[in-house]
Fold these 3 entries.
Entry 1:
Amino acid sequence: MVSVQKLSLSAKIFIAMILGAIAGLALNIAGNPEWSQVWLTDGVFKVVGQIFISLLKMLVVPLVFVSLVCGASSLSDPKMLGRVGGKTIVLYLLTTAIAVTMALTAAVIFKPGIGAQPIASVETQISEATPFTQVLINMVPTNPIAAMADGQMLPIIFFAVLLGISITLSKEIGVRVSDWFKDMNAVIMKLVTLVMRFAPYGVFSLIAILAATSSVESFAALGKYVVRVFAVLFIHALLVYPLILSMLGRLSPFKFLAKLRAVALFAFTTASSNATIPVTLETVEKRIGVSNKIASFTVPLGATINMDGTAIMQGIATGFIAQYYGIDLSVNQYLLVVVMVILASIGTAGVPSVGLVVLAGVLGQVGLPAEGIALILGVDRLLDMTRTVVNVSGDSMVTTLVAKSEGELDMDIFNDPDAGLIFDEEEVKVQV
Ligand code: ASP
């Protein structure tokens, strides 16, 4: 039977993910023999996967900078920026507080740490989380170019917003500069489109490596912990977000969630909110209908300061480690964990595994042994991928709410399920 089917880019990426999982599992079952290690998991798959991640990261700084300057310079009213900033930060902190509180409650009620089996001892690499005062100081770059070179998101945001405001204040000269940034923005979006064509190959490779090299035993030993984290992540994304969205924004959560497919796929495969920024921006603007003014500011900010999924892992892990070592935490200590997790999420960039490093700092504050991290290290990658999906969904949800409240959400786009096929999803005809 021959029929013609249209395959969009996100469908191709999804198929690549499934095929990658199948290929990786097949290698895993075969014990990942030496030839496949040399040629595939440490060879072709690794090269293709890493190049894909590098391509995405390559886009982040130019995209965030140019898009944010455009956004800030198109604000006719600088007061709006303060209002948008205030609402965004409050919502980001509030959702993180809900997330970590739910996680701690789940850890206290279901006690995942009692009777847990540690997996083979793993060397922990613990570095200190940055203190909050330093986060504030670091927000103002002494050298914006250096901040860009290091990919530090908060200083880049700070500089871009100030530059955008100055462009508006510079009247006619400003108009010329702003036109240049708008053109540049269009060019960079084209670059994003080009890079995305490579995504199916990158996704295939990354998932294949993960499936080929993960050990089933480590998951079995920490089963209770893994299941608790997954459960709270799902509740947060599929219950808490939809509730907030319909209560505060009077928006249909179903329409919203259906549009997040590409964002979720990229977050899952890259385990990095930062690397997902190009996809998140494109999605909230073209698929959901948020104006560039709002999205260019809230999305990069969210990738840095909003980590609900990470907070959930940290809450459950804290309970897990305390229970494993037989240490009873007081109510005050739990409250301290909540505050620490919220503050820590502000200063850390959305990159893979950063949540574990931050957790070391949180554990130290409440007097738990930071070595406890070794217990959960073995299963963290899959959890990292999943919590990153929640992190970016939270960024998109808050972005949509703030846009709605500012009259910057195009409801025709929001209500149209087919609006804004991502990355000019060219429709490829294939025969099946
Ligand atoms: N990978 C997460 C992110 O980029 C952070 C973490 O939980 O480690 O959002």
Note: Strands lie at 4-7, 428-431.
Entry 2:
Amino acid sequence: MASGPQVSRRTALGWLAGGVAAGAAGARFGFSSGSGGELGDVAGARNLTGDEARAALETFVPGGVYDEYFIFSSGGHSGQIMVYGVPSLRLLKVIPVFTPDAWQGYGFGTDQGNLVLDGGVDSAKSNTLRWGDTHHPALSETEGDYDGRFLYINDRANGRIAMVDLRDFKTKQILDVPNLQTSHGGCFVTPNSEYVHISSMTPCPVTESGYAPLSRYKEDFRGFSTWLAIDQEDGRFDLERSFQIELPPYTQDLADAGKLTSFGLGFINSYNTEMATGGNLHGGHADPSKSLESAATSNDYDFLHIIDWQRAEEVVAEGGTRIRNGMRVVPLETATSEGILHFAPEPRNPHGVDVNPTGDYICVAGKLDPNGNVYSTERIRAAIEAQDYDGTDGFGVPILRLDSVLEAQVELGAGPLHTQFDDQGYAYTSLFLDTAIAKWSLGPKAGHGEGDAFKLVEKIPVHYNIGHLVTAEGDTVHPDGRYMVALNKWSIDRFPPVGTLHPQNFQLIDIAGDSPRMLSDAPIGNGEPHYVQMINREKLTHVIQVYEPGTDPMTWKRSPFAIDAGEERVERDGDEVVVYMSAQRSHFTPDTFETKVGDLLRLHITNVEQTPDATHGFAIPAYNIEASIDPGEVVNIDLTLDRAGTFAMYCTEFCSALHLEMQGWIEVAPS
Ligand code: K7E
Ligand code: CUA
């Protein structure tokens, strides 16, 4: 071994043998100062450097002690959401959203899972759509702070959006958003959860048939910015109160909500304002001029979309909309003439747009430009007021003069993508190509005066190819600083080989001190994560562990099909067999029942237990049925019996010592 590491290994022993182990940790575990030496021995035996041993102590969370923060992570094309604890970076839960999950009985015959999944399927598209590409989770907010009620996430692939209830961490609704074919980054919640925003990525044809030749892209294709009102009681989307704003056929990308000084505004990045449509094989050979990637990067500027959603509300209330596929739409001409939509030039092909906690600075990073552009809310509002325009785009949308709205440019590094914020007026921008994070200062409105405003402070290397990043409560008006997580697309050599598809890598970074410190790596064995949000666990005040007896989780009310123990029964009405079944350790009642081919079997199963963790599963494998019935929950299954046989059913959750005995039979006699 080279001498460098040996020196630092010795430092580990020294550091641990010193006062630290005898300090805070010592007090809790009763170590004497002498046992610092023992910890030093452990670090030495495990070949840990001083920094590594320290990081281990800073991130270890013992059983029974809870992580301080939760991360809600997009699961990418796994269609799920992953929940991690911070600082441990332990996986706490996977919430199935767009993709079935057998463990949680989501999508295998129960009405809850099937209704949610089917509700998000445009029947013309397919009635078997069972995946999505989750990208951007958005927690509900009150006065600009996370309030721990609901979580929303978009489906990049299908232009859908889902709602997860943070009382039971279950998906309650999937909405196939009208007029959207795809949706990338435009998912955010406004500061009082007035709206959940989702915009289109690729524009779609607005012709009657839904078809238009690509040669008519400019004329017949449009994008849409969607403002979905939510029911404040149950978090569900309310289309009656929702509206869309028609946009030019650019590719609308990331978006963020204005807050505090910029409250009432929404910001959306765009690229491909060139309106390139591809076609690189036309003429039988690859034609670079037709390549989407080169044609879509030929303009020097793309357009930051600035949307005044409060003005839009007024126009909608005055009836300035057309109905399109059941949605009220503000036409592009109206959005332009009524001052709802303005553009500002932005460095070409930007990715992230992020509003700082005070709402004063809008940070835009252009993937192909080393500079971060900072727009000021004050300047934007003044320029709109003064109609300080640099002409219009090809659709009549006024373009604000760049010089008027740009506050600063900060050279950050190669491939800047997304920006997050701490509580000290610093911004952190991921640099995909540099595979680093740039820490830089914001301006006077964030507490950095003349001398040190808009300056690059340092670059933090990450491993490797960072996409998003998140700071604790980083999208709120009160970020905590403290922790930052880098979401790295590649892990290369950080973990032992597990075949050809590598895990991605979350890296936890301590940003509380002057200089950020890398604490730990965590392989992400599901994916791919795009964006995450980090919330203080104590804000999740609504979480329950047991349902009230007989609850239907879709309504939060007592199910009409709920029973108490002793009320189990089978009712027959012609070909309909209705079974009111209870589940409790360690039996189903009834555990056998007789049916015949052609019967419609309606199973209502109540878990009559109230003990936390006493979940039962229920599977009829022969009929592809799998349910999870949590304490107090009622699950409904409708099954048309089309095959004769005597089929075993069983509890899939190891619930008790006699779990294996928790089984039964369904007799399906030939008709
Ligand atoms: Cu992967 Cu926000 Cu969908 Cu950037 S996005 S990385
Ligand atoms: Cu119930 Cu196993």
Note: Confidence is low (pLDDT under 50) at residues 1-13, 18-34.
Entry 3:
Amino acid sequence: MPDAFDVVVIGAGPAGYPAAIRAAQNGLTVACIDAWKNRDGSNAFGGTCLNAGCIPSKALLESSELYLRANSEFAVHGIHVSGVELDLAAMQKRRAGIVHTMTGGVAALLKAAGATAIHGTARLRPGRLVEVTSADGAQSEIKARHVILASGSVPTELKALPFDHRFILDSWDALELASVPRKLIVIGAGVIGLELGSVWRRLGAEVMVLEALEKFLAIADQQLALEAMRHFKKQGLDIRLGAKVTGALVAEGSVSVQYQDGSGAHSLSADQVIVAVGRRPYSADLFSADSGVGLDARGFIQVDEQCRTGAENVWAVGDCVRGPMLAHKGKEEGIAVADRIAGRYAHVNYEVIPSVIYTAPEIAWVGKTEEQLKADGISYKSGVFPFAASGRARAMQAAAGFAKILAASDTDTILGVHIIGPLAGELIAEATLAMEFQASAEDLQRTIHAHPTLAEALHEAALAVDRRAIDNINR
Ligand code: FAD
Ligand code: NAD
């Protein structure tokens, strides 16, 4: 292995590996070093997202939804099945297989791009010297012209409930359970709490979700959040808002959790608890104190708008820097930095980053919520189309939810799109593209959408902005 590279990327998650690939595409010599260790001791590229986040969670969401539908929905279609049985071991094997294939894919992509991929731990010293301790224990030192830090994030622990990985679980533990808990407490009704709570609820667990805030899905548009809450309650997720956890006790194979809400002190017991109260940036022993890289008060690596740290030619991207902790945000930052290093133009539009929660119904949005527009004093028009009026959604037996478009009163520019319903995560791509191109509601109105598709909901919501919807009564 050479001892000098144009670019050294530390971390091969969704922020790091695309940066390495793009830097190699730009004709630069690249090393990408990643420390990920699976619980069986094996190494893998792909970071949190591929190994313990986005991909395994979506595999289980898909399987658990099919199990639920086989049990509860097939009969509506006139399909009678009997003896539907859960084989959790097979479900988990499928999940692990997908992860294995995808992480192997990252290694193959890095290789094909000509990047040197190294399993090991890296530490930055002044002058862009990178110390590497390889997975086999070998030590080496690499000199880099540029360094990209992409060290990611880890789950936040609660003082009252430190992870023991048996009864008090982090999100990775919760993806790899070998049996369905009879009773499960989820702390935090955020994205992970709702996605993993849904998985285990669908597979038969009694799930109680304790959320500290009084408001459900406070970051989302509240019309959408209210609709979501209604569906989750119907599905049997016992969501308790304004619940401040004060303590927990593990004894005799179960956990009891104490919490306080407006009505007083309560105690709940369950087989296991998933703590999903957010993630914190990870940078333990990533750089020496004299490297010139700084952290902000919350532990994020300090960067400017273009992801430059305080040290010359040292950049940082992904979950370890400010902004939403989303794989696609990290990917765009990684690519942009690799282009900037090569002297090419790059930009990341932080105003137009889609968010998706992969529950059923799915939830997705991009841009401003109604609450944000009101707070900013921006005058807007709103158009809503319910999936109940969509032929395709009806055919799919998935007619819950709606699509909502918010457009500026004066210019008609689309300011925000909020969808709860079937494949909302796919539908939001059209809205994201429209907003990236600063489209107006009229632009969407004049765009032909195939019939019958779910995407017609966006077309009709755009028409409803001007009370000109065709397939729904304009109010
Ligand atoms: P990471 O993916 O955390 O990768 C960082 C890598 O750097 C790791 O492999 C780590 O081992 C390595 N590293 C750290 N320090 C060093 C060092 N000193 N030397 C070498 N290597 C080092 N996001 C979405 O957009 N969509 C989803 O559906 C989604 N689902 C999720 C589900 C779950 C359960 C979880 C936990 C997260 C989910 N996320 C999702 C969030 C997503 O996983 C993160 O936003 C994303 O992984 C961040 O990418 P990253 O490259 O910044 O960091
Ligand atoms: P989150 O920030 O989405 O939600 C955490 C929730 O826990 C919040 O509602 C918060 O109010 C609550 N909370 C905080 N402290 C609490 C306490 N002491 N008691 C009770 N509730 C408390 O965080 P997360 O769900 O852990 O997810 C972590 C990150 O991973 C997020 O940034 C998210 O974007 C990302 N992620 C994304 C996806 C996706 O894109 N589909 C899926 C999973 C995770």
Note: The chain has a mean pLDDT of 98.
